Amino acid sequence: MITFLTRRLISAVALLLVVSALTFFLMDLLPDPGRGILGVSATDEQLASKRRELGLDRPVVPRYLDWLWAALRGDLGTSWTTGLDVADSIGTKLPVTLSLTLTATVVCALFGIALGLFAAIRRGIVDRSVHVLAVAGFAIPGLWVGILLVALFAVRLDWLPATGYVPLAESPVDWARSLVLPVATIAVSGIAAIAQQTRNAVATVLERDYVRTLRSRGLPLRRVLLVHVLRNATPPALTVVGLQFIGLLGGALVIEQIFALPGLGSLAIGATSQSDVPTVQGVVLVSVCVVVSVNLVVDLATGVLDPKVGMR
Amino acid sequence: MTILGRRSVAALATAGLVVAAVAGCGGSNTSKGAGGKTLTLAAAADAASLDPAKTAGGNMLAYLQPLYDALTTVNPDQSVGPGLATAWTYTDPERRHLRMTLREGVTFSDGTPFDASVVKQNLDRMATSNGPSSFAVATVAGVTVTSPTEVELALKTPDPALLFNLGLVAGMMVGPKAFADANAQPVGTGPYILDTGHTTRGDRYTYTRNPRYRTPAAYPFDKVVIKAIPDTNARTTALLTGQADAGIGAPARMDAAKQAGLTVTRQPGQVTGLWLVDRDGKIAPPLKDARVRRAINHAVDGPGILKAIMAGVGTPTTQMFAAGSPAYDPELDRRYPYDPARAKQLLTEAGFPDGFKLSLPSENAFVPAIYPVLAEQLNQVGIKVEYTPVSTNQLSVQYFSGRFPAFMYVWGTTQNWIDANALLSPTAPTNPFKATDPVAVDLLARIAKASDADQGPLYRELNAHVVEQAWFAPLFRGETVMFSAKRIALSNKPGQTFFSLSDYKPAG
User: Fold this and answer.
1) Do A150 and B132 count as a contact with CB atoms less than 8 A apart?
2) Out of A97, B126, B218, B221, which residue is the most buried by the measure of CB atoms under 10 Å away?
3) A32, A38, A40: which to substitute to probe chain B, counting the most B Cβ within 10 Å?
4) Residue A79 is assigned to a structural domain of this protein
5) CB contact at 8 A, B193 and B210
6) Is A294 inside a domain boundary?
7) Contact assignment for A42 to B430 by CB distance below 8 Å
8) Residue A270: which of B8, B46, B183 has the nearest Cβ?
């Protein structure tokens, strides 16, 4: 277990280094950030002076090492455009994105697993219906679903807010209301993916000899399902849920724009288009950390559920 | 460009820059029947910094105007009126010494009195802060305090845009005690103060009344909330559902807005057109010939493109200066009717009977639908367009680097001097090939020293020259479409291109 964790930790650190360096060097290839910050009317002298102010007159490698050293001490620097502390900005945006992605993942997992189980057990018409639904869920673009949902539930019926985010601490009810439409938009394809995966995993397990043996010994189906089948079918489903969550982090970029949610995605889009390197680096760093942690949790959970998966 | 600034690109994508900007745009927060004392605006871009020394104009103005007064005020017709300075005069015929008389009895929201030394500190700070608005005071050589209520600005060169610029971000006065932390804890003499407890950067900004403000009656709302909603669709939906009282909407949804009971206000916006920047023919030799440039003007069907692609929301034009500004001459809009035969004839006269190849950039964010039509229309007269797709990230930087001989651009027109300099001056960063001619240079020099009254005819002469030389091939002037709730009355004078906070009143 400890070796396993150590190895994961080392690979996580390596991943962080590679991704952060890659982002830093790629950002450096973009047109002059000074121009982005000062606008098209800035004179050459102003640009030169801005470059000095930002330290861009120095080579990229020492600049990266400086950033890295500061980041290791928890200092992510100051945004080049807003002048705000990057860690603070991320601190206010991360809860929005996590609210969105975690809620969406839970919703997808619950509905997806339930549908998948149902399809695997009942088979026949139920199975085929779920399959058709799942394919449709994949095929329909989430964006379009979002626009439809807004047109119906926000504009026409006025049941839910069309845009914006309310912090959980301010009002749990409004927080939930502000998430319904964005989560529903994401959930369409998410549920489809998880339902398909669960259905296949459960169906495979149900056909195993040991399940037939258990059933023949008179164990009730419910017990067989809960204790034996699910336990064996969950790891593949869990992997999909983990992947789903990571995918959502990227998908949040679009969803946050559509619903005007002030999350990491909005921050990343704004910062990238303005070549705000410190903010982009901060967002990348935090995103990688979140992704690594999720993978770790999924692996640990898989290990607990399935003793055959050795944690070496 | 100036008022546009860094976010201009984003603003371009969505709506009129200037308009968006100044107007900032917004709406009322919890609005639905919230008693009419709160104004919630939906803005097309997030605020950068709340410290004027670190902020551009354009979309940013909406966030700053509640907090800060500027030395002058820019009127809806872009003329300049009194602000924290009540009067001013140039004391020399060269117009290089500006004496400004300051308003008395004004205090900052932290109690610090406003006086001449504060003006000097602010202007010096703006000049040295190297922020997005610093260029606007680049002509100021020094500020002298001549009395507690009077300052004198010495200029390096005459600057007909200075008083205009001092009515925008560059002239906003920050309380000197707040210099260090103006972004987080802004202190100004404006009608409102920032309610930091109800402000989330990147999302919403809440302003409450400044108890020290001198004429609160001019601002009827007790609270102003500005929500940053960069996505046009999201912003439009927020307006349709009453999450905001006013903001720039999607033109395509004007009918839906009217059905939802909103007021739709259309204002002249930016000029969309082809910039023939390589007019010396450095990388595209045919463009050196004025006949070729005129042929391009005749070859593109501005009215047709406007109708087909922009649903007719706008006005065809051939000139780059703002409608209603001193330089504008409606007659010029008739100079280049759509006439492919005439275009072909001009190309033949110029020695290109079979046309030529022209390399242009294309992008997929601002006016993507124009590119195929443009290529087809130019092809009709023999000009074969080869597009190079470019990333929309820092589009302007790529365009103004001199990589392309011409490009399609959306320009937010503003004050005439600012536009004239940006478009025509050989030193302007927006003139990538530094192309100009003696006529333009001479006219610019004469305008710089002319009195306000004499500037108009000179601007018109300059405009006529540019149109005749066909340095641009403008297609149309777009419109900014403002959606506002019925509970808000929005003052809108003819030709007004932006809204200030004081333009919003409760209806009835």
Assistant:
1) no
2) A97
3) A40
4) no
5) yes
6) no
7) no
8) B46
A60, part of any domain? no
pLDDT score of A312 more than 60: no
DSSP state letters, chain A: -HHHHHHHHHHHHHHHHHHHHHHHHHHHTSS-HHHHHH-TT--HHHHHHHHHHHTTTS-HHHHHHHHHHHHHTT---B-TTT--BHHHHHHHHHHHHHHHHHHHHHHHHHHHHHHHHHHHHH-HHHHHHHHHHHHHHHHS-HHHHHHHHIIIIIIIS--S-SS----TTT-HHHHHHHHHHHHHHHHHHHHHHHHHHHHHHHHHHHTSHHHHHHHHTT--HHHIIIIIIHHHHHHHHHHHHHHHHHHHHHHHHHHHHHTT--SHHHHHHHHHHTT-HHHHHHHHHHHHHHHHHHHHHHHHHHHHH-TTS---
Within a 13 Å sphere around the CA of B212, how many CA atoms are in the beta-carbon half? 18
CATH code for the domain of A260: 1.10.3720.10
Tell me how far apart the alpha carbons of residues B164 and B101 are, in angstroms, rounded to a whole number. Answer: 16
Which numeric CATH code is attached to B45-220?
3.40.190.10
Q: Which of residues 224-283 of A touch B (CB under 8 A)?
A: 257-260, 262, 266-267, 270, 272-275
| H or E element that contains B84 | none
Every domain range in chain B assigned CATH 3.10.105.10: 6-10+268-480
Residue B7 has pLDDT above 60, yes or no: no
Domain that holds residue A207: 89-275
**If 0-12 CB within 10 Å is exposed, 13-18 middle and 19+ buried, where does residue A247 land?**
middle
ipTM: 0.81
Compute chain A's Rg from CA coordinates. Answer: 24
Q: Which residue has the tokens 């000049």?
A: B127
Fold category of B6-10+268-480 in CATH: Dipeptide-binding Protein; domain 3 (3.10.105)
The predicted model scores a pTM of 0.85
Look at B183 and A84 and tell me if their CB atoms are within 8 Å. Answer: yes
Cβ-based burial of B461 (10 A; exposed 0-12, middle 13-18, buried ≥19): middle
Answer whether residue A290 is part of any domain: no
Sign of CA dihedral B456, B460, B461, B462: positive
SS3 B425: coil
**Total number of domains in chain A:** 1
Sign of CA dihedral A49, A52, A58, A62: negative
Q: Which run of H or of E encompasses B237?
A: helix B232-240
For residue B49, give the amino acid letter. Answer: S
